[in-house]
Amino acid sequence: MQIQIRTDHNIEGHEALADEVSSVVEDALSGVSDRITSVDVHLSNQNSEQEDGNDSLRCMIEARLESHQPIAITHQAATLNEAVDGAADKLTRRIDHLVGRLKHQEDHRTDRASLAWR
Question: Which InterPro entries does this chain map to (predicted)?
Answer without folding.
Answer: RHF-like (IPR036567), RHF/RaiA (IPR003489)
